[in-house]
Specification:
The chain is an alpha+beta fold. The protein has 16 helices and 21 strands. Helix 8 (about 220-235) crosses helix 11 (about 330-345) and helix 11 runs antiparallel to helix 13 (about 390-405).
Length: about 475
């Protein structure tokens, strides 16, 4: 790539073009997962939709691979590319809230912490990432399970419209009334069809104070606690958002000395509503006698940041997202048999989690969006995070073995936002919906410019690859 062509892109952009010689190149290319070490030829740090259009045109003209970055959390490394063009949306992070209509418009590079701060100024929210540094872009287009999804559905279910830059450089609005097919596809189909430069979300009343937090018990109590948790939450109202996890207890003052650094079982709970009402709803979980009880009134923004210490930038990571229709005693026993050792293999940041999904997600008809498998009751999410390269094979093998042990209790479907492997795309959608997505890809990105994702390959490209 010539300096002349790079200068031509610079002249077309309001934002900056970063190349390997620049002092901020490493910061521009680095993503959260330290296992990902890719070097794009250049980084377009966009400041406007027009910058994104210019970048897409530049990549198309030169035949460059394209990666798109919002928050950079992508555990599989889709947020950066080797030798191509990284389109960085972090400069598009303006959030405008209309409290009267309960709508918010947010740039494609907005982080959930930024979105929550803006909306909570009006005691409003939409279901968002469980870590504040998560970008709204990949999270929403991949579906988007948040803590309040049990009541209000996925992030993509609360999307009203989106501004999208297509592979040919055109800019369209996707909604129920405009480009409805594209609107269907970007709600669960990921970044396959274009780059979303602005999201318009529906908002719901919540906060600024909520009842939420974490309670923990010694690991020996895990079989009892997980059974009691299951029995209580399955008939519970969807205002009770909750998850169970086996983690390593931190060396904090609130943790009894005998539990510090040990594997423990924890329950996370959030009441999606009035904290005073929630106190009675959550009390049966507190009555199980935790060794540490941090379930209490707190700002919603504080609850949203609760897991931030477990997701620092610069650690190595591997995780999965597998659906479960139920949580039998056998499934609980298998989880308890494997989770402590898997968490210990990459202590102290690893989390072995089971989320209860809730009717806010399952009540939406499956055909309403590209996102699929809404009938599942639970989501199994083993997260391994570690520091040293020498531990890669050992930790990943432990995580995979755990997932294999839990597979008999799963549906066979995958949640792609939590999936590293590239062979689970059909599992995420099913055959009929996958073919509909291929048709959509044929229309909006027939040359597969946007292929650094959980890719839906256009039919023409699949045929060419088969011939080759």
């Amino acid at each position: 790539m010539s300096k002349l062509s790079i200068e031509a892109l610079r002249e077309r952009m309001q934002g900056r073009v970063v190349v390997p010689e620049d002092a901020d190149y490493d910061e521009a290319r680095t993503v959260f997962n330290a296992m990902i070490d890719k070097r794009p030829a250049l980084v377009a740090r966009c400041a406007s939709t027009a910058d994104v259009v210019a970048s897409v045109g530049f990549a198309r003209e030169l035949g460059l691979p394209v990666a798109v970055r919002s928050g950079g959390h992508s555990i599989a490394g889709w947020s950066v590319c080797e030798g191509g063009l990284l389109i960085d949306l972090r400069g598009l992070n303006k959030v405008v809230v209309d409290p009267t209509s309960k709508r918010a418009r947010a740039g494609g590079g907005t982080l959930w912490g930024e979105f929550d701060e803006a909306t909570q100024a009006h005691a409003l929210h939409t279901p968002g990432g469980r870590v504040t540094t998560t970008g709204i872009g990949g999270f929403t287009t991949g579906g988007g399970y948040g803590w309040t999804s049990s009541k209000y559905g996925l992030a993509c279910d609360n999307l009203v419209s989106a501004e999208v830059v297509l592979a040919d450089g055109s800019v369209v609005t996707a909604s129920e009334n405009e480009h409805a097919d594209l609107f269907w596809g970007i709600r669960g189909g990921g970044g396959n069809f274009g780059i979303v430069t602005e999201f318009e979300f529906r908002l719901h009343e919540l906060g600024p104070m909520v009842l939420g937090g974490l309670a923990i018990w010694p690991i020996e109590s895990a079989p009892r606690i997980l059974r009691a948790w299951r029995d209580y939450i399955e008939p519970a109202a969807d205002e009770l958002s909750t998850a169970a996890a086996i983690v390593t207890a931190p060396p904090e003052e609130f943790v009894p000395d005998q539990l510090k650094g040990q594997r423990v079982v924890g329950l996370v709970a959030l009441y999606v509503g009035d904290p005073a009402v929630g106190a009675g709803v959550v009390q049966p979980l507190k009555d199980l006698g935790p060794a540490v009880d941090l379930i209490q009134p707190m700002p919603y923004t504080a609850f949203q940041a609760f897991l931030d210490p477990l997701a620092p930038k610069g650690f190595r990571g591997y995780f999965r997202g597998e659906y479960m229709n139920g949580l039998s005693d056998e499934a609980i026993d298998t989880f308890v048999a494997h989770a402590p050792a898997t968490a210990a293999a990459a202590a102290p940041l690893s989390q072995m989690i089971i989320f209860r999904i809730g009717q806010g997600v399952t009540a939406v008809p499956d055909e309403a969006t590209a996102f699929s498998h809404r009938d599942a009751a639970y989501l199994f999410h083993p997260i391994s995070a570690w520091a040293e390269r020498r531990d890669d094979d050992r930790v990943i093998a432990a995580n995979r073995a755990f997932a294999a042990a839990m597979r008999p209790f799963g549906t066979g479907a995958a949640y792609l936002n939590f999936t590293v492997e590239t062979d689970r795309v059909r599992d995420a959608f099913g055959e009929r919906k996958y073919e509909r997505l291929v048709a959509l890809k044929n229309r909006y990105d027939p040359d597969n410019l946007f292929r650094l994702n959980q890719n839906i390959r256009p039919a023409r490209r699949r045929d060419e690859q088969a011939i080759a």
